[in-house]
Amino acid sequence: MPSFIFTLARPLLARFWLLTRGLTLGVRAIVIRDGEVLLVRHGYAPGWNFPGGGVEVGETAEEALGRELSEEANATLTEPAVLHGVFHQPRFSRRDHVLVYVARGFSWTSAHPPNREIAECRFFPLDALPPDMSPGARRRLDEICRNAPIAPTW
Description:
With 154 residues, this protein is α+β, with helices and mostly antiparallel strands. 27% of the residues lie in helices and 33% in strands.
């Protein structure tokens, strides 16, 4: 296809894609041990966040959670994580939602080695969180650890 046709069609294709695209779903794991929480710093976004990512086609949310924990944090669930809530994440799209789980049963032998996706992965004391932690992640910890009201958005 000649490039000028693609240039003309691109805005229409983008609108069509947004109108027909279904809900996108992600998962995040709040991994807690002995007064600490596991956080990752992505190479493509500022600040610290919980490990997680998108649910792939044909994958359950729990399978995605296990895969993302392994890929991003070198952690393995040893007991089922508990669903904390479902949150709308409109920053990227009005159709994005994220399932947030609390994991207390897991194995973690060492930090994930840095790569293009994960710049750093480590545990932080709950009373000494990094100042550049994601505001949404900070709200989730307040909900879980300080019984703050649960907000509907990330």
